[in-house]
Automatic annotation (TrEMBL):
Key word Aminoacyl-tRNA synthetase present: no
A cellular component term, taken from the record's GO annotations: cytoplasm
UniProt cross-references to PROSITE patterns, sorted A to Z: ALKYLBASE_DNA_GLYCOS
Pfam assignment, any one: HhH-GPD
Reactions listed under catalytic activity: Hydrolysis of alkylated DNA, releasing 3-methyladenine, 3-methylguanine, 7-methylguanine and 7-methyladenine
Name of the protein in its database record: DNA-3-methyladenine glycosylase II
Taxonomic path: Bacteria, Candidatus Woeseibacteriota
Species of provenance: Candidatus Woesebacteria bacterium GW2011_GWA1_41_7
Gene Ontology molecular function, alphabetical: alkylated DNA binding; DNA-3-methyladenine glycosylase activity; DNA-7-methylguanine glycosylase activity
Amino acid sequence: MWEEAEKFLLKDKYLSPLVKKCGSCTIKKSMKFRYFVDLLESIANQQLSGKAASTIFGRVRDLCDGDINPEIILKLSEEKLRKAGLSFAKIRYIKDLASRTKSGELDLKKLYKLTDEEVIGKLIVVKGIGRWTAEMFLMFSLARPDIFPVDDLGVKKGFEKVTGKMFDKEKSFKFAHKNWAPYRTVASWYLWRSLEN
């Protein structure tokens, strides 16, 4: 899926060694029916380590008998969701997502037709979804090729490690645009990989 991006990034002195070492980017588009689950998982995982996040999300999935959908989320009691490990704030957020999705105010199945900025605009009206969560959705659910999440800690650390430059949101954004557009999603994926050893 990302052959063009990899060919392009192989010409970049910073990312070329990572492309050779890490192989192909593994980001794949989600099916439309998964969008709700993807967003709910993003909210549940905010500010948690990988292990804690997957444990809590696993418990929420169990509460839904494996079928996470807006109706079930709206029916689940706050008490059950608290026991699963979600904070009161996150419970409010996932209920808000479920209620906007169920009412049709947020039509998740049509998001793939919108531009990146339009998708962000639609998602950030949901409580608990900020620009970062919306960008993760663009990258990992819609597989949009040119997203550079400047608020992501991993991207910041990876950028500093790979380029040897101090991360500055504005300057680093311009640097990424100049060197890695139109494949900044894939570049970000390699920046994350750079932190793995």
